[in-house]
Specification:
The structure holds two protein chains of two kinds. Helices cover 76% and strands 0% of the residues of chain A. Chain A has one domain. Chain A is built from four helices and no strands. Chain A is mainly alpha-helical. Chain B is an all-alpha fold. Chain B has two domains: 79 residues, Rna Polymerase Sigma Factor, Chain: A (Orthogonal Bundle), CATH 1.10.1740; 95 residues, Arc Repressor Mutant, subunit A (Orthogonal Bundle). Chain B is 68% helix and 0% strand. Chain B is built from ten helices and no strands. Chain B is elongated and about 60 Å long. Classes of the chains: A mainly alpha, B mainly alpha. Chains A and B meet through helix 1, helix 3 and helix 4 of A and helix 2, helix 3, helix 6, helix 7 and helix 8 of B.
Chain lengths: 78, 187
């Protein structure tokens, strides 16, 4: 059977595991409060990172895009 | 690709519009201030158009761009992109388990943990404790949701090294946020 420290390693490294181990992992998470807390926390961390920069100003980004386009397209044809 | 190499203006506009936002967001994710991100993104595009004639299109344009961004970011920070064989977080994680592999110091209750993980300032602060490589791996995986293969290509990493980096990044963030949550009084 998988132990808690192995579960934590698999969850945080995103290791590819066989279907057998996958089943064991699910079973372990269903029974072990600590490991399921750990899994939930990792999930929360990913969610926070996604929300972190969602609020970047559209206007500034458009300005940056326009600048890049200007710089690199003017070089050619003319 | 051909149109890009021929410097077709329409193709240039298309590719710049398709990836500038993602690049900017990734630069923020790597921990740069907005004005620096602007500069960084411009440098990425400059390099992209410079080396375009030699680009054979073996990899996705996006992978290629993220790779350039990552190299520029490491350059700017003067950080080595060499894979470190050891990171102190590995010992920290190990100490949380007993010899039998069971939790000795179990994770904090998620409801308490949330106090820190939902606070933008705390998350940013904890992210700053990661190396550029760790941040890049974490960011591309969790926010840009790239497949492992693509991340390995962009960052020139082996699959094993990527797993180690993600392990370090996620555990560092978890430990850091947990410590912050514990410090906060319950309101």
């Amino acid at each position: 059977m998988l132990k808690c420290n192995e579960i934590a390693r698999i969850l945080s490294s995103g290791e590819d595991v066989s279907w057998m181990k996958q089943a064991q992992l699910k079973m372990h998470l269903a029974m072990c409060k600590h490991c399921s807390r750990y899994a939930e926390q990792l999930h929360m961390i990913a969610g926070s990172a996604r929300r972190l920069f969602a609020s970047q100003s559209e206007q500034d980004l458009e300005k940056l895009e326009a600048q890049v386009i200007r710089e690199h397209s003017s070089k050619k044809t003319d | 690709m051909k149109r890009l190499r021929d410097r077709d203006n329409e193709a240039i506009t298309e590719v710049v519009k398709a990836y500038t936002r993602q690049l900017f967001r990734a630069a923020l994710g790597l921990g740069f201030e907005a004005p620096t991100c602007d500069e960084l993104v411009q440098r990425v595009w400059a390099t992209f158009f410079d080396v375009l004639p030699n680009f054979r299109g073996q990899s996705h344009v996006r992978t290629f761009l993220f790779g350039i961004l990552y190299n520029k970011a490491s350059e700017m920070r003067r950080e080595s992109t060499k894979f470190a064989s050891h990171d102190p977080i590995e010992d920290v994680v190990e100490r949380r388990f007993g010899k039998d592999g069971q939790w000795k110091e179990p994770p904090l209750d998620p409801e308490k943990f949330m106090i820190a993980s939902e606070t933008i300032g705390e998350v940013e602060d904890c992210l700053s404790g990661l190396s550029t490589t760790q941040r890049a791996a974490f960011w591309l995986r969790e926010v840009e949701e790239l497949e492992n293969d693509e991340i390995c290509n962009a960052l020139s990493l082996s699959a094993t090294n990527l797993r180690v980096l993600l392990f370090r990044a996620r555990n560092k963030l978890r430990e850091c946020l947990e410590a912050k949550a514990k410090d906060k009084p319950n309101e």
